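> call design_seq(struct)
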């Protein structure tokens, strides 16, 4: 977990809730053993994270806090309960949220995002060029491409 402080009045936390990923991109910096793991944060780890952040915020006198999800793939279907727990606790504290995702399962989170209007600053979806190039670089475990699936998810939300 990384803590970054900006101007001493703002705290920004980058949050890796899992290293697991549903894709097998050939250019990924994470090893396949890490991406294939099923490890995710536990309730105890979530509690510890918030305790640490609450203490840091108090010590620094922070007036705003921003939480960013990345990973692995933070917005996997299998992570939804964890992401929802963290997100709702962050929103209760007045934090804003963002995330970096491959976009293949982000549609599973639209209901959560719609329940917290104005709290999700941005969701960055990684696209690697036109369909032909993207599908060579962003590959599902079964070898299929992801371009059209991501486009559908973006279109659903738009």
């Amino acid at each position: 977990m990384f803590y970054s402080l900006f101007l001493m009045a703002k705290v920004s936390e980058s949050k890796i809730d899992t290293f697991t990923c549903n894709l097998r991109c050939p250019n990924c910096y994470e090893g396949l053993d890490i991406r294939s793991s099923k490890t995710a944060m536990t309730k105890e780890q979530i509690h510890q994270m918030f305790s640490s952040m609450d203490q840091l915020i108090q010590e620094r006198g922070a007036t705003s806090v921003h939480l960013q999800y990345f990973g692995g793939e933070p917005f996997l279907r299998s992570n939804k309960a964890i992401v929802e727990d963290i997100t709702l606790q962050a929103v209760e504290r007045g934090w804003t949220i963002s995330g970096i995702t491959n976009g293949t399962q982000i549609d599973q989170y639209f209901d959560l995002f719609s329940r917290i209007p104005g709290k999700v600053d941005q969701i960055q979806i990684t696209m690697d060029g036109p369909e032909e190039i993207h599908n060579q670089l962003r590959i599902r475990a079964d070898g299929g491409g992801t371009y059209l699936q991501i486009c559908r998810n973006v279109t659903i939300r738009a």
